[in-house]
Specification:
263 residues; Rossmann fold; 20% helix; 6-stranded antiparallel β-barrel; alpha/beta
């Protein structure tokens, strides 16, 4: 019987310096069992572990985009190509891909919240006939915090994009929080559509409220909610909100459920 809590060693293939605080680690992985929106527990022995969403996948590799925020991530940032990173997973549910096909899709992402949805966006970039349209709003604090510059450029050639910086003006970017730009999405022209919102809890809260103010139905909104996950298998209780274990029932939630989980 497989022990689902036992991490295994994986080789780091590449390290991409996205910003001073966020790196993307490409790790050798030869299984085809990953769905968009799932996460792994990444660890360094005797240091710790943390849940990290998959930000990209390809033949023989996975990518994880990590922000340096503590002892574990500081240790991971010290790793180089050919070093070993320990992982267990994948865990959690995924974005309902079948519900998105042949419909309009709106994606609203803030900061590192772009990571869990980037793989899904790449899927539709590579399979444009499977989606009616994509409207993408991606917000970052400032120009030094912009992630995935290559992907942002290519998405702009196919999707309807709004890239925004919180308080600064830079060519190619709007100014203001993502919530300020939601009203620009032509919801009234869509017959059947879905909305994905990913980012810090407060950003998701106000972005969802703004969508509702623009006549979006609650059932059409999906969020990725990685609140305080620890064991990933529903045993430690750290992520439990009322009767919901985020690691087991999430991290992807429909807003009809998520509205009672967002703090």
């Amino acid at each position: 019987m497989t022990n689902i809590t036992l991490p295994a060693p994986y080789k780091i293939l590449d390290v991409i310096h996205e910003t001073n605080a966020e790196y993307t680690f490409r790790v050798a992985y030869d299984k085809d069992n990953i769905k968009y929106g799932q996460f792994f527990q990444l660890s360094i022995p005797k240091v710790g572990e943390a849940p990290i969403s998959v930000s990209g996948k390809g033949a023989g590799w996975l990518e994880f985009t990590i922000r340096k925020v503590g002892r574990l991530t500081e240790g991971i940032f010290g790793l180089q190509p050919n070093d070993t990173l320990f992982m267990r997973g994948p865990y959690g549910n995924s974005f309902p891909l079948d519900k998105f096909r042949n419909k309009d899709l709106v994606v609203i992402a803030g900061g590192t919240g772009f990571a869990p949805v980037k793989g899904l966006l790449n899927y539709f970039y590579e399979h444009p006939k499977e989606i009616k349209s994509i409207n993408l709003i991606a917000g970052f604090k400032d120009i030094d915090c912009v992630l995935f510059e290559y992907d942002l450029k290519k998405f702009k050639t196919v999707f309807n994009t709004i890239y925004t910086l919180d308080n600064t003006k830079v060519d190619g970017f709007e100014t203001g929080m993502v919530t300020a730009h939601i009203k620009k999405i032509p919801f009234n022209t869509f017959k059947d559509y879905n909305v994905i919102i990913v980012g810090p809890p407060i950003m998701m809260h106000f972005a969802a409220k703004e969508c509702l103010a623009n006549s979006v139905e609650e059932s059409k909104i999906w969020v990725s909610f990685e609140r305080k996950m620890s064991c990933a298998v529903g045993k430690c209780g750290h992520c439990k909100i009322n009767e919901t274990y985020v690691c087991l029932e999430g991290p992807i939630f429909n807003y009809t459920k998520a509205k009672d989980l967002l703090d």
